[in-house]
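Residues pack. One example:


***
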Amino acid sequence: MNKLEAFGYITAQAARGEISFPTSVNAVLRLQMALDDPDCHVDEAIRLVLSEPQLAARTVALANTAAFGSAGGQVSNVRAAVLRIGYRRLRGLVAALMVRQFGHRLGDRVLRAKAEQLWTHSAQVAALAQALARHVTRVDPDTALFAGIVHEVGGFYLLSRADEFPGLLEDDPENWGALCEDVVSVEVMRKLAIPPDVMEAIGALRDGVPNAEPHTLLDTLLLANRLAPVGSPLGDASVASGALPFDEATLQRLRAEAEETAHALGDAALV
């Protein structure tokens, strides 16, 4: 099967809703569903977090960042961390664990490097989006963090399939962008039950232009993509240009806060 046939095959599968995830991703999805249950008691949430060591470590780390109120003192256990950040913020960490699992079993060295870079980019965009939401656009910071984490989920999915189709992602950014954003990303996000407002903002990234006075989730993601030090290895959907809508002091504040959050989300090493 040549490259174009492979693109067509994967696209046709996605269009039919035939999206299959690695076993590790399905396990995290079950965790997400349990935490999303309104009847999930805090003790059960803590047990579920403890069942995933990576999630437990990141929950404590995130709870100790300035963005989540570290001024109240450092926490050193999962119970205190969950109580501090709350279920909505915990959802973002579960999403982070989920997208990283897409690259968990990649055997090809080049693909694995792409997955590592894509995670670094996603973590930086998520952290910057949260900071921008808090200080500039005033959208919900938890939603902005979540949107940043999952904004390249279609890319992670295609990387997880690329082992099946050697050469699929080599030097073909135009086909990649069309496939990833027009078909695969939409179906993957539906399968993962991404909220409609987040799906809409991610879907508009390719041709999006931020407002002169940024105030939407799309504005937030566009600016976060622009400010992220590490770009996507698969080609950025859109990178805003022009003067930034805030001063240098605000920019430095955003970067400092985002750096701490991105570190708490986890470095580039795949789990």
